Amino acid sequence: MTGIQVLNYLKSLFERELTSFIDEFKKIPEDKLWQTTGTIANSGAVLAKHITGNLNHFFGHVLGGNNYIRDKEKEFNPQADKSRDELVADLETCPALVKRVIPSITEEELSRPFPVEVYGGMNTFEFLLHLHYHLSYHLGQLNYLRRALSSL
To answer: Does domain 3-150 have CATH number 1.20.120.450?
Structure first.
């Protein structure tokens, strides 16, 4: 598989997981967006803010060169500071961001160190895999939380 094929495959994986994340988020009733249950620490709204912040930081700012400034503390703030429509709108910008940035990555860049050091250093390919895993992990959390909240 060439580097370009790998990038195209990663792009399709991100698009699939983001579509699923957005669909799953939309299934949470409005009155439960900021709610958690049991040992679940983050609400669906907090997970939405975190995914949006994470992708805007790494795809938009680090790889895409935009001026996004991440506020990770605000991402995990459980206060209802955004409406459902705002959170959905923020999430819906992410697939276009990924679609725009991934094709700008060259095959050579895949084996170079990721532009910012994360977890002791990874090359760009490794970090893109990590970002996909991170998104998938939080998609699973969101699905579990939604089902737990629907049983309350």
So the answer is: yes
